[in-house]
Design a protein that fits this description.
The protein is of the alpha/beta class. The protein contains seven helices and 16 strands. It has a six-stranded mixed sheet. Strands 8-9-10-11-14-15 form a six-stranded mixed sheet, covered by helices on one side. Helix 1 packs parallel to helix 3.
């Protein structure tokens, strides 16, 4: 299966975001990708919450989600919108991944569970939970003959999430992200390769990268990693781009057979 990851530098408006992402999705499809994934916050990057929150819509109304659903149907590809910031039916907001089938229908959604609430060494303070409602349920879904496990960004730092997805049958774990530059430079590659090795899974990690319109700076360096921890494809920069790899799903069984950590795990009593 050929997969394509789209690295973005999403603008601060929905209209700008769709104009930015659509040509890169088309490029990935033209290069033969059947499963295409975009990063976290594909639909808007706007850190002024007084501007951001009133602009958010339901997934059914969001112009980026609607536009990408139409594009997936036009191209006949499976498209993971790594996440869109949307308004829930109850009026609260969510950081939500959308898996879109080749017919343009929403096949699955996942709401980010772990909120990025942190005081960075740069002095920047981020409180994702102040604006978004965390999800509660892990999600797997079938796509292009494979089982995907869905995560978003900060979930990467919680190994139990990825182990649970692998035990539920996930062969590919998606990690769409918008990592800050300091944490991305220090930990991005290490964490991605560790999650692949621990679970014997392919890891697809499309990222936001560069200096955004709203002043935010993200790390980029999107990666496709094999179940033995090997880097199959890598954007060694933070510019908008497409990266591709051909996945042999039989490598998952080989990796898990060679290092049966999932099967050997035992319950234990905490200290």
């Amino acid at each position: 299966m050929r997969v394509g990851l789209v690295q973005l530098r999403t603008p601060a408006t929905h209209a700008g975001a769709l104009t930015h992402v659509a040509p890169l999705v088309r490029e990935a499809a033209a290069k033969g990708a059947r499963l295409i994934a975009t990063p976290e916050v594909t639909n808007i990057v706007q850190r002024d919450r007084g501007v951001l929150l009133p602009s958010l819509m339901t997934g059914e109304a969001d112009p980026v989600v609607v536009g990408l659903r139409s594009l997936a149907a036009e191209l006949g590809v499976t498209l993971l919108i790594g996440s869109a910031l949307v308004r829930r039916a109850d009026g609260k907001t969510a950081n939500r991944a959308f898996l879109i089938g080749p017919d343009g229908a929403v096949a699955a959604t996942y709401d980010k569970i772990h909120m990025f609430d942190v005081d960075l060494p740069t002095g920047e303070s981020l409180r994702e939970s102040a604006a978004f409602e965390p999800g509660e349920r892990l999600v797997t879904a079938e796509a292009e003959g494979a089982t995907l496990g869905l995560t978003i960004c900060y979930d990467l730092r919680f190994p139990a999430v990825h182990q649970a997805l692998a035990r539920a049958g996930a062969e590919i774990i998606t990690v769409p992200s918008a990592f800050t530059r300091p944490t991305g430079q220090a930990h991005w590659e290490i964490l991605l390769r560790a999650r692949a090795i621990e679970t014997g899974s392919f890891v697809l990690a499309p990222a936001q990268g560069g200096e955004h319109e709203d002043g935010r700076s993200t790390w980029g360096h999107s990666m496709i990693i094999g179940p033995w921890g090997e880097i199959l494809s890598h954007a060694d920069h933070d510019e908008p781009a497409v990266i591709l790899a051909d996945l042999d799903l039989s490598a998952v069984a080989r990796a898990r057979g060679a290092i049966p950590a999932l099967a050997n795990a035992r319950a234990f009593i905490n200290p």
